[in-house]
Amino acid sequence: MIDWIGDAYLSVKVWLFETLLLPLLYGAGWMHWEEDAFEWLDFALLGAVTVLVAYIICRPLEAALPVERRGADEPSTVGTDVAYTLLNRLGLVPLFAFVALQPLEIAWAALLADAGVIPPTLETAIPALRDWPLLTFALYVVIIDFAEYWRHRFQHRFGWWWALHSVHHAQRQMTFWTDDRNHLIDDLIGGFWFAGVAVLIGVPPGQFPLLLLVMRVAESLSHANVRLDFGSLGGRLVVSPHFHRVHHALDHDEGIGVRAHGCNFAVLLPVWDILFGTARYSGVYPPTGDRSGSERLATGSWWGTQVEGAKRFARVLTGRA
Question: Are the C-beta atoms of residues 67 and 234 closer than 8 Å to each other?
């Protein structure tokens, strides 16, 4: 089944490239970019799929079971998060990631080839997994999720990283769009982190899009404005909107002690929070936001929040925070 999904994705990608992108390149005289454009299409296509799937799952839930309802006269900052999502998954961030990652990927592959090194994978380490593709994929998810848990904890622990991550926490009107509300520098770090772990454990190229889809849709749901808990058992198996909303509670900005030793850092599996003592199960749906940031960080436009986050980042690096 995993291979079938990968083959279907590749077929759609080839059709879009040959039908839409290739004629545009030919007409503009940019055929020397053909190979690069085919690779870059992965970013835009996968982004469009994740946005569509997240919308289909999360939007009806938000309409039916909202935690907060906004009045018609209440200003909304959700539009900024929509801009973040579209730029992140369809435009600016994929382009930056492609430009930054492609030369490194080529250089890394060449270095390994010159050294005669074949990167290990889960399937080479545990040959029996070759007969269990679904189990192998599940292990990829578990390992990536473990790495993402620690990246999230580091975002709260180190002052310079929190200065960037606070752009995400500044939102006081959380919705499923909020997942992609991140500073560009933070997104690039996260992209290197995610892709680096995937390369280290040998995630096949055909399965990487599905892995990314699972993680991104899970994160979108966890940020949704939905009064939804998975119960005493389910809530300890999968991160729910309630579980992650507690992570975004306002009390996380009350000093490094509270922020760094906060709670509910997991992306998909709460087991990491349970194992490392950072799980917090609460019956309330707390207000969200970050009092330590400026109003512009909370209510500004995409550009305004990016600039404000960069200023906060610079102040930390120069010791003026």
Answer: no
Distance of CA 239 to the CA centre of its chain: 14
Structure tokens at 285: 């749906």
CA distances from 234 to 34, 228, 242, 243, 268 (A): 47, 11, 12, 11, 12
Residues 74-116: pLDDT tens digits?
567 899 999 999 888 876 565 555 556 656 667 776 777 777 7
Find out whether 147 and 155 touch, Cβ atoms under 8 Å.
no
For tokens 């982190």, the residue is 193
Residue range 159-168, pLDDT digits in tens: 999 999 999 9
Classify 288 as helix, strand or coil. strand
pLDDT, one tens digit per residue, over 251-310 is: 655 555 555 557 999 999 999 999 999 999 888 899 998 888 888 999 999 999 999 999
In terms of C-beta distances under 8 Å and separation of at least 24 residues, what long-range contacts does 154-163 make, across chains too?
A: 155/186, 156/252, 156/259, 156/260, 156/262, 156/265, 157/260, 159/256, 159/316, 159/321, 160/313, 160/316, 160/317, 161/186, 161/189, 162/259, 163/309, 163/312, 163/313, 163/315, 163/316, 163/321
* pTM of the predicted structure, to 2 decimals: 0.84
